[in-house]
Amino acid sequence: MSATDDLLVLGPLLRYVDDTSACVWVETRGSATVRVERGAVSATARTFVVHGHHYALVELDGLEPGTTETYTVSVDGEQVWPEPRSPFPAPVIATLEDGRPLSLAFGSCRTSVTHDETGNRSHGVDALRAWALRLADQVDPADADDPDLAPERLPDLMLFLGDQVYADETTDEMRAFIESRRDIEQPPWTELQDYEEYAHLYALAWSDPANRWLMSTVPSAMIFDDHDIRDDWNTSQEWREKMEATSWWHGRIVAGLGSYWVYQHLGNMSPAERRADELYAAVLAHEGDDEHDFGPAIDAFAERVDQHPTTYRWSYTREYDTQVRLVVVDSRAARQLDPDDRALLDPDEAAWLDEQLRGDVDHLLVGTSLPFLLARGLHHLEAFSEALAGGAWGERGGRLGEKLRQAVDLEHWGAFQKSFQEVARQAMEVAAGERGRAPSTVTFLSGDVHHSYVSEAEPVDGARPLRSTVLQAVCSPIRNPLSRNMRFATAVLSYGVAGPVGRLASRSVHVADAPLSWRYAEGPWFDNNLACLRVDGPRLKMWWVTGEVVDDHERPRLAKVASYELDEDGRPPHPEKVRERFVRGVRRRYRDKVKDRVKQR
Fold this sequence. Notes:
Largest sheet: 7 strands, mixed
Helix content: 25-40%
Oligomer: single chain
Distance between the termini: 37 Å
Radius of gyration: 23 Å
Strand content: 15-25%
Strand order of the largest sheet: 14-15-16-17-19-18-20
Structural class: alpha+beta
């Protein structure tokens, strides 16, 4: 075994980075001192332990803005990163610089199976890994003349918008680990049970060499979605009560939220936010060479914030000078499920988001794991199901509505009309210049739905002229494609009469009209893909990339799936006719069948 294997379990992950500071997260095999060196700047941290697993977050400060330098990681004085004889470039930390055009990648829904022919046939090519191989210049692009497939510099951020791990739909490798510990014929069967199983799941998700290199050299931010805990997490009060009545749910939610704090959320916070965080403040306050086991404290914390979500905030913001404000919203744990006062965001969370939705930046980006603007047919169906479950057609209709929303996952923003209406009005106010200088765009970034698209929105009455382009951009999945039948069903709900029929259904239960209307500008498409976004003044460009197998399943080339761009004045492209978009979609699907040598589920 190499020193890396002996001393390092997972990481390093490059997490929060700004103009003068950066933090690096690792999981080590035992109690240790971890050192990170970047040029003349270095820092150390002692590990802390959670249920037998050892972690460190090393915080570098005093870095020069706008600089890129390689770095090393040592554990107890022995270098473990970069690995000797690694085929990948040396990892770097690139600090931000005011005025430099910002670029980021985003996406959601990635399951961890092998990258050979078997894994690619069952789940398609891992778009994140294909992108990593291209960034590392390990493979050629599908189109050598496309500058988007040959970036001049690394992105400033990767934004993972949920389902980074699947705690309920486990892979063969994860099931083998579970079966080595307990009887899978007993609850929770092949789903995750405790912290130890979550730790193994994260190791499977983040240990592939290409993705591990990528996450060591491009900063990341994350937010959970349902599969990080369980499908349909917090769909309704009835769903929650059903889960809490089981023998295993308490262990799942405590382990899920506790491990999320350790593996994902800790690196989301700025240095000041970490110092103020109740758990990390306790880690920093521990003195002595011994490790204190924070497992009981994290368990108690997770239990509390599950039962009392207003006592902790998972949402966060990142400011990129005057170019971008990124607001990342918790749309799962902060739900208010009382049938008489249902909301996607509880009052505290709603008030916090209201404060963040302001202008005075070039682009306001709102990251929410669930698309704010679904296909119109799906949106109206969700609004209908909420009203039906709420008793709009009586008790029998209420039971039917509850079964409907749980059976077909009707639990996005459209199924929480109170919150949807509030945030839609706030977004329109930002776009109208009523909350500071209007940005060029108000762009919602989302995942979850296993298809990707761009929608453009406008006010329904036209009485309030907007100065901003309002967009919904979705990238899903990174690696977990829909079955062919589900793709067809989604397409039916995306085109044609589905919108008007859904609107009639929602009107039948007296759902209020939305303050905005929207339509597809691009998509939908169903490839495994990763989205890239670049801003430069009022301009915004997005494109989606995927992996294509040519000869070697483990070395897919990177190809572009679609793109969308505002011009130099921030104006959207000219709307295409529905027929033209439909024909282009048919051509894309035909192209995929001809070109894709990998059979997806």
